[in-house]
Design goal:
180 residues, mainly alpha
């Protein structure tokens, strides 16, 4: 999404901080209201299972790689390395760490991937590209242009309603791609 609008990951994170915080708080409040009777007042944390030397090293390497990946995301504005490449590099290094310190079976990891979700996301983006080629995004652009001519309030309200509706129907990322 950040690359679509030609902004850095750091700029994207800055813009998304308050909406993400609001989303977390609203979700927490909603869960508290809906499930208040079934949430226990106390919870006994089970003792951690003992870890071997290899597990400790794998965890340490994994934390270091994830931290470096996060730093790579935020450094994208200075390095020019795209976020997808940083994420891909981190994933490959984590696979290597699992092979070195863990069970060493990439097939086991790949079997744990929710391929149906990935297929669904790819399908959504194919639909969005189809809608773009069919001219729907152009029509939305014309509508937003008409609303902009009526003033900032009309454009803001219209954009919000269209984006919220499409996000409910499709998903927020393809909607952002389409609206962009």
């Amino acid at each position: 999404v950040a690359s679509l609008f030609k902004i850095s990951f750091a700029e994207y994170a800055r813009w998304m901080f308050l909406p993400a915080l609001a989303s977390i708080l609203v979700t927490f409040a909603g869960l508290q209201v809906v499930f208040r009777r079934s949430i226990p007042r106390t919870y006994i944390v089970p003792p951690p299972r003992p870890r071997g030397f290899r597990d400790s090293r794998r965890i340490a390497v994994s934390v270091a790689v994830l931290a470096a990946t996060l730093v790579g995301f935020f450094a994208q504005g200075w390095t020019g390395i795209p976020t997808w490449l940083v994420a891909f590099g981190g994933a490959v290094i984590l696979l290597g760490a699992d092979a070195t310190f863990g069970k060493g079976d990439p097939v086991r990891i790949l079997k744990g991937v929710s391929w149906d979700v990935l297929a669904f996301v790819v399908g959504i983006f194919i639909v969005v590209l189809g809608l773009r080629h069919a001219g729907l995004t152009h029509q939305i652009g014309l509508l937003l242009g008409d609303l902009a001519a009526k003033g900032t309030s009309s454009m803001t309200t219209g954009t919000t309603l269209i984006a919220a509706s499409l996000s409910s129907i499709m998903n927020n990322h393809p909607t952002t791609y389409m609206m962009g």
